[in-house]
Amino acid sequence: MADDLRDGEYAGERALADLSRRSRPALLRYFQRRGLSASDAEDAVQDVFLRLSRRPDIVGWDHGEAYLFETAASVAIDRHRRAHTRREDQHTAYDEARHAVPDHSVERIVEGRQELQRLIECLRLMPERTRHVVMLARLERLTHAQIARRLGISISTVERRLVKGMAQLAAQLGEAGQ
After folding, report:
1. Taken in order 116, 120, 126, 128, is the CA torsion positive or negative?
2. What is the C-alpha separation between 38 and 139, in angstroms, rounded?
3. In a 10 Å sphere around its CB, with 0-12 CB exposed, 13-18 middle and 19+ buried, how is residue 161 labelled?
4. Model's pTM, two decimal places?
């Protein structure tokens, strides 16, 4: 019984491989005539045979090629819908010169971490209320009115503490950087 199942699976694989060998060039042309690039057409052909591989009854088909192109039409429609939904026509192709992030040297990464540590230390040295105002304004990008409401202080107090805190940061970071 198990051997019969394996023989059936093997026969199905052979039939699918044979169909693939005979039909792949025609399917590639089919998809390319519908506007797919060569690589996308190759992917679409793979999608067709993936769908066919899920059909256990492919061995006995006399109308396998008709079903093949019916499946190809379905794959083409699905790809078109997916491209439309994802608005692929509005995507920009990746360009190494435009999109690549420059590599950072180990030295630059270490310098950045040291600068961050200096900033954290400078913030710790500030009075608590001034530190809160600076962090809310610069890190959370809250308006002066929002900070005043959150901390229960006046807007003018927020402005004074922000100016004082930024001056203190500039002075301390300027000394540390020299």
Report:
1. positive
2. 48
3. buried
4. 0.46
Is residue 25 within 8 Å of residue 58, measured between CB atoms? no
Please give the Cα distance from 76 to 47 (Å, whole number): 10
User: 34-46, pLDDT tens digit by residue?
Assistant: 888 888 899 999 9
Q: How much helix, strand and coil, in percent to the nearest 5, is found in the chain?
A: 80, 0, 20
Token pair listed for 168 = 């203190």
Instruction: Give ∠ CA 89-94-100 in degrees, rounded to 5.
Output: 150
Q: Which two tokens stand for residue 160?
A: 């004074």
What is residue 87's three-state secondary structure? coil
- Of the ranges 68-72, 102-106, 115-119, which one carries the lowest mean pLDDT score? 102-106
